[in-house]
Amino acid sequence: MKAALVGCGAIASRWIRSLLADRRIEIVVLVDPDHQAAQALADRYELSPAFSATLEDALALAPIDVVVNLTPPDHHYPVSREALSHGLHVLTEKPLTLNLPDALDLVHLAQERGLLLAVMQNRGADPGFLAFRDMTRHGGLPPFTITADTLVTLPGPGFRSSQHLPVTTDLAVHAFDQVRALITAPPTEIACIETPTGFLAPHSSIAVITVHFADGSLFTYRGGYIVDPFLRTNANGEWRVEARGFAARWAPDPAANPGLAEAGPPAYQRCIAAMVDALHQPGPVPVPAIDNLGSIALLDAALQSAASRRPAPVPEVPDARP
Ligand SMILES: NC(=O)c1ccc[n+]([C@@H]2O[C@H](COP(=O)([O-])OP(=O)(O)OC[C@H]3O[C@@H](n4cnc5c(N)ncnc54)[C@H](O)[C@@H]3O)[C@@H](O)[C@H]2O)c1
Could you tell me if 134 and 244 lie in one domain? Predict the structure, then answer.
């Protein structure tokens, strides 16, 4: 299959390495208004793609089957929608969208057109985290009190320096994927406050998020883009769980490259391979993004709470399965 890779920033290298190793998808167009960024990627990986500044222009340059959407979060919905509207499969970086109605719109469009729509969920699928989830599920009974701290440093902050609420839109969605694996009851209410700490760096910011669940469980998250590597956590976060008669903690080494300490390929590579498997499986094309709608409901409510500075109800996710 032939792909247009849309968005040639920091994360694109990870995707290109994985797709080149997989070999089932050929990158025929690199799309980015920043031509230098696209050219640098082509040079680094010895690709000979066409180049374009927009997806619309890319469609005229080469036959394309699938769009890999690696744009900043606020571009995810329009880029993915445009791709699906043109009959193209979509593999997208997280978050799927910034709100639940947009996510449902993409899911319905993919279903109507028989197209794949899959979103990266590498932290929720990290093998170390999944072992922690299994230990929690087998050892403890809800309700749970869960805390997570994720403090990340970035060599190149990219879009985050100008993104409104960068931690909530870009980082917290990982924790939403993760906590949904630990607490299966529906979330009911969320409170989110994100405070820029621009005195450290333009992208620096700290978000504090509290989520209540229908079974009485409570999740508190503290996420941040910080500057000093000495203070950072592992990008998977540091997790603590307590229930009656049960306590568990998962705090992977901050210096460890997430996923690489585990046996086998890192989680993002497994996620990309699973997406490409889904594209090539016989029978009707699946829409794996349906499984991520719960995380987008949390993100939607978190952004509403941050804007209103009050707790917000978490919208119920309608059953989108065919
Ligand atoms: N899953 C993960 O662990 C992980 C890690 C890092 C980033 N990401 C995600 O990857 C995405 C990109 O992050 P990044 O760090 O590469 O950002 P970045 O700022 O480094 O790069 C974004 C690129 O997109 C380009 N762009 C912006 N609008 C565009 C458009 N409409 N069409 C084409 N190109 C456009 C920009 O010019 C830039 O080159 C984000 O959604 C982010 O959340 C995921």
Answer: yes
